[in-house]
Amino acid sequence: MKSLKTLCVSLSFVASSLCAGSMVEFIGMDAPSTPEKMAKAYSEAKVIIHTANGGKIQRALSYETLFGVKDKVGTNKNPAGQLYSMSMKPLMDPFGKPLIAETPDSNSLLNVNGSLYLVTHYEYDWILSDGSSAEKSDIWHNRAPMSMTLTSIKQDAKNGKLKAVDQYPIDFSKVGGIWIPCAGSQTPWNTHLGSEEDYDLYFTAASGKNYKAAQKGLKAMSELYFEGKKEAKAYDYGYITEVAVNDTSKTTVTKHYAMGRGTWEMAKIMSDEKTAFFGDDGAQVGLYMYIGDKAKDLDNGTLYAAIWSQTNEDGARDGGQAKLSWIKLGHASSEEVSQWKEKLSFNDIFEAYAPAEFDPKKHEGFKAVKAGHSEIEYLKLKPNMERAAAFLETRRYAAYLGATTEFNKMEGVAFNKEDKKLYIAMSYIEKGMAKDTTFAKDDIKVAKNRCGGTYEVALASGIKDSNGELIKSDFVPTRMSVPSALLGEEIATDALGNTCAVDKIANTDNLFYSSRARTLFIGEDSGTHVNNFVWAYNIDTKKLSRILSTPAGAESTGLQVVENMNGFAYIMSNAQHQGDFIKTMDKDLQSKVAPKIDKFQAPVGYIYGIPGL
Fold it and tell me: Are 364 and 379 in contact (CB under 8 A)?
């Protein structure tokens, strides 16, 4: 396969200049309908390059697997998805078998001085070696210590195909291990930016069973990861993590505490190299912005939280339209936050009561908030704890100051530099986003849509925060809405078990924008589609094309678009928890699909066939 540049030159003697006006079009594929297709990751889509002189260059796409989580790559003596203790000893499950994560997530394919490396997340442990649920096991921990791998990649110079040739697990012992690394992104300075979703760790003693789940997870970290030599604490996790790779295949890991603590799906850095936005996964969550003091500085900066001011009617079925304004939460360094997390607990920062315990006559000065879950908490900030609250209890403090914490399942984030737009995935538009007559704070009032949508956000400069102070960024969100093509559509259960329209996106999760293709790529994490898909949405033509299908029950993860690597383009894509069938799937069909899926062998791979853009 030749690169687009080479192909353009071969079309005519003026083609190299004509190709400056080329357009990339994806021709979508049908949704799978046979057991054979429903059980595998595959692509039957095509890509067409429309050149400025009216020519067409068409290529068929395919899905290529680099490795599965059970595979041993190169000198790695253990399976790719193997989990480890702090001394890098392989962990075993309760049956004495290797503890392997079947959940590959974020990918960063990086070109480091001509050498190719792939950083890959392993999000959580789904099933044990006997096929039982790891999270619901009575004899096992609900959360295992997680991992990432660094894989050396070789590229075939002639056809561009990639091959995994060596691999090793990344050591997180210097930062206390890692908790649920979900999606990620690539920094403008060519490093991997990962995440930690601290779902369980958000809860306090007043949260009952949820708090008990958190303690089980911390017990697992203490016993398995720290080998019983150290006690894990809630404030150790929930941060943005950077992995730098040098040209000798060595990694440096940094947790950026100054970016705040939350259930971070991912962070995306703008082209100024200092402004970042987060996907905050979960219920009753917020939209946050971090601005570094200078470029490439993720350890000294200011944190902001958004206020949604809806501009269309209550119960809007379009996902809602809103103006956004910003509250400054605080400024800190990672060194300061690191010190606070070692010394402080939740009870040092807030005085708190659950509704059943709260008495407004006795408890003065408290504020009612819904943040991180649908239950009301009554909070009172303790003296001199403003800055600690901003960075260790980011979501609660944002709600405490009046920011909007009503978003639901906020997932991926993508950046369109040319049009100065941000794209934010909202996997399920429901819960806090619906009108709530039971709580005084109700900023978002849209119709429930369990198929979700992808929001488009306008960015601007010269914006002031709620205190009238200038926000020092040219990329401040001011308006937010959903393009109609990116809004899911609920349907009655069809013959296969889909409960959202199969030819529309359902439960958007991973996002990646390619400026050279003028295309937003979208991966699904759907409980409403029997098979999840990767989609290509051309932001100019508004055309939506299905370009990949994952095995039934699997989430599409690891989405990254590499626009041109030595003349070839790649769309990185994984599948995790395959065979985790949705409840509505036709049982007879499920019985035919299930034997064809190896639940233990989730793939890490890419969509192949695109010329370098």
Answer: no
Q: Report pLDDT digits (tens) over 343-381.
A: 999 999 999 999 999 999 999 999 999 999 889 999 999
Nearest to 255 by CA among 273, 266, 269, 239: 239
* 83 closest CA partner among 152, 139, 141: 141
Nearest-angstrom CA–CA distance, 302 and 260? 9
Residue pLDDT, tens place only, 511-554: 999 999 999 999 999 999 999 999 999 999 999 999 999 999 99
Give just the sign of the alpha carbon dihedral 553, 558, 564, 568. Answer: negative
- Please state, in angstroms and rounded to a whole number, the distance separating the CA atoms of residues 401 and 382: 14
**Cα 274 to Cα 189, 293, 416, distances in angstroms:** 11, 7, 16
Token pair of 246, please? Answer: 């040098």
DSSP for 148-187, please give it: EEEEEEEE-TTT--EEEEEEEEPP-GGGT--S-----EE-
Q: Are strands 104-112 and 62-68 parallel, antiparallel or unpaired?
A: unpaired
User: Residue length, the chain?
Assistant: 613
Q: What's residue 39's pLDDT?
A: 98
pTM over 0.90: yes
Angle at 154 (CA atoms; ends 153, 159), nearest 5 degrees: 130
- Number of Cβ atoms within 10 Å of the Cβ of 450: 17
Q: Are 65 and 41 in contact (CB under 8 A)?
A: yes
Starting from the edge strand earliest in sequence, which strands make up the sheet with 421-426, in order? 264-269, 275-280, 288-292, 300-310, 322-333, 476-481, 453-460, 421-426, 410-416
